[in-house]
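so my prof wants the structure for this chain in the tokens format not the other one, which i didnt know existed until like an hour ago. anyway here's the sequence
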Amino acid sequence: MTASIDHTHAPDLRSWVESANHPDTDFPIQNLPYGVFCSPGNATARIGVAIGDQVLDLAACEDAGLLEGVAAATACTRPVLNELMALQASDRTALRHRLVELLGEGVADEARAQVEGALLPGADVEMLLPAEIGDYTDFYASVHHATNVGSMMRPDNPLLPNYKYVVIGYHGRASSVVVSGTQVKRPSGQRKAVDADAPEFGPSRLLDYELEVGMFVGPGNTLGEPVTMADAEDHLFGLCLVNDWSARDVQVWEYQPLGPFLGKSFTTSVSPWVITLDALAPFRCPAYARPDGDPQPLAHLDSDDNRARGGIELTLEVWIQSQRMRDEGFEPVRLSRGSFSDLYWTVAQMIAHHTSNGCNLRPGDLLASGTVSGADKGSRGCLLELSWRGTEPIELPTGEELKFLQDGDELIMGGFCERDGFARVGFGECRGIILPAS
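here's what i got, hopefully its the right format
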């Protein structure tokens, strides 16, 4: 069931934390995303909520008695979000309501003083992975990305016939998921030149990023019991940004016959703040409109509610700053801007499909959308597409030609939701800088 709009989404709702009222902030009081952090002088991992340029320490709020009567209070004192993710949606919504009450302009003076004691400057904290990620699944939900990549590999048959019936995905490597800001070492692997007789082993020469949206699982399902479309979003906690770094030369050599492996498993970056479905309620939209002639989803992947509100109007951007750009004083430049609403498959369909064989999901599991690309070139979500496998280089302000990522390049991903009549809700950033191979 899709989260509903209530008083916490009112556009005129304001916080006494002044930075939360700035029109360009990612974290107004209407957002209130969850993350995990530690701070100077206190290395203990705690759950926090972003509000403007501040972080609210929820463990400190519980210690002060500010969460009394809230069912989620105990979960707020844990060092990761898994227990909070496991709660029912109604309990998490009740926590959101309490936080809005504490951070809103109408809060009593005594409570405000206690909340002020639990606030920390966001610039002073270190963000950590938001959850213990037991499993990581990466989907392939953009028909534009799948068609573009397929046309490079199979010009005569770019999109395989199963794509429009089944949600394609693969099981990724949870152990190499890292939080934004973690440096990314260029991987080594087997790669084979087209005209070579045999492969060689060495650093990847075709290192790439993939702009994706991550989905953290909330309450899990029992092994052997599929999740229906009607219940799928009840098993979803919230969304983040994902950069599924990819070694294209390693990937193309290994992906047949079983699919991605070492070309993907070396690092996956996630943004630190998890944006809840409650916060995203005003930005729901119809699912991707399938063109005439495309098959409709099979019954277990279809519902009236999903067709009407299964999409999310989330704008996604990628920026780059090369080492030379930094050295010469150039700011990052934008490579692309796309929309999560362009995905062929919705978040509910990904969950329903993942569990359709009885596979059990657990709180804190990470699902990712796969590269988010749109129909036009400016909305392509990776360099493989933007540079068309290196044949159409992108010129940077320094005159450098960008085909694939070089050592020292920094990628910055951002996302935000905007709609008339509602406050802007942002996702923060997902950053990573490339280090040389060992």
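also thought this was worth mentioning. Residues 201 and 317 are 33 Å apart (CA to CA).
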